[in-house]
Amino acid sequence: MDQKKLVLIASTIASFLTPFMGSAVNLALPSIEKEFELDAIFLAWITTAFLLSTAMFLVPMGRLGDIKGRKSLFVLGLLIFTLSSLLCSLAISGESLVVFRFLQGIGSAMIASTGVAMLTSAYPPQERGKVIGINTSAVYVGLSSGPILGGLITQHLGWRALFLFPLFVAFFAIFAILKVKQEWAEAKGEKFDLTGSLMYTISLFMLIYGFSHLPETLGFLLVIGGILALILFALIEGRTSEPVLNVKMFRKNTVFAMSNLAALLNYSATFAVAFLMSLYLQYIKELSPQEAGLILLAQPVVMALFSPIAGALSDRIEPRIVASIGMALTALSLFLFSIISSETPMEYIIGNLILIGFGFGLFSSPNTNAVMSSVERKFYGLASATLATMRVIGQAFSMGLVTLIFALLIGKSRIPEVLPDFIIALKTAFVLSAVLCIFGVFASLARGKVRN
């Protein structure tokens, strides 16, 4: 088989796997909460722990892949992801599940920082938008099948069975990529910045972990410390000859900088939607995991349908135009979600999930195309990892925002005990998310034209 197609197959399978687990786990959260008797804040950490470790390791892994070889790191990431999934299925407590999810995030960082970079290296610029669209579509197919299979498996086999799924799927990705003869390491021979990598991971840990513990004093101290550490990191990296993160790319490349900012704001605004609506449908509407999964299916199905179209469109039309329209539609849908109540008709919920899926589908592929087309080949791994980092930091920030709202409005109570407060928290989260998305529209428009 054509080497390019093997890369596309492996990258696409991997791009399917991680979002599938994320959306499937959302459906299992009420079952996990019941088994381990977890409060609302700790329940959110089952998702946040995965995002935290992914965010911490994405950029260092992207740089390591550029130096040592993206294919090798991709395979190792798949192995770690599947092993940690097995451990998650064997968790004996909420605490152990959080630890194993953190480990799973490290494997996810290796996969995400190398998959799109290999794809971009393997295909010429004129085909890039199309294959990135296919790859992005796989993400949404994963998101689509997650609610269905996640709901079915949780309801009939239990939540532990969910974590066994990656063991079977990852095999096909590993088989395909091992048949590829080429290795991509455009920065081979350059030095890996271990000091900068440690500074980066520690500062991100402080920032994200601290934000999730607001409004406690410890949370404020960690957030302030994390921001200061990131500023110090940027100053040092700007003077390092072979940095783990080339901060000059942000200063000198407007398209790269603003496209990453747009991604950060978009994911900050949208990621918690599936988490919140899964809880809403099961706790407020009293649906089974399987029924809730079928409702949530509306959003990712529309994403999967429109991502390839939007990606191909961005090869002919300025990516910022397509992406900005998508971001604006997403902001509208978030505002519409902020008025839901226990009496909201299911047709309204499904219609709004379709709208947010359409908006997100228009945004993601063109934005990715803009980022990858704005840098030189030797920076593909770093650019891919940086964009993935913006996505994961945005997702973690989204969950951190929800955790903060839960802490202020629900506290340490279990959700079934405080349903009216949960509705208020839900509305508050959607209003704040919509505001973030509006800022994202301006960032998307401000990026300027992409020059291949």
Question: Overview of this structure, please?
Answer:
The protein has two domains: 380 residues, MFS general substrate transporter like domains (Growth Hormone, Chain: A); 51 residues. The chain has 17 helices and no strands. The mean pLDDT is 85.
Strand content: under 5%
Query: How many separate domains?
Result: 2
CATH class of the largest domain: Mainly Alpha
Runs in which pLDDT lies below 50 for 5 or more consecutive residues are none
The CATH superfamily title of the largest domain: MFS general substrate transporter like domains
Number of helices: 17
Describe this protein with a few key phrases:
452 residues; 80% helix; 2 domains; Growth Hormone, Chain: A; mainly alpha; single chain
Write a brief structural summary:
The chain has 452 residues and is an all-alpha fold. The protein has helices at 3-36, 40-68, 70-89, 94-122, 125-156, 165-178, 194-212, 217-237, 248-252, 254-270, 272-284, 289-296, 298-313, 319-337, 346-372, 380-409, 419-445.
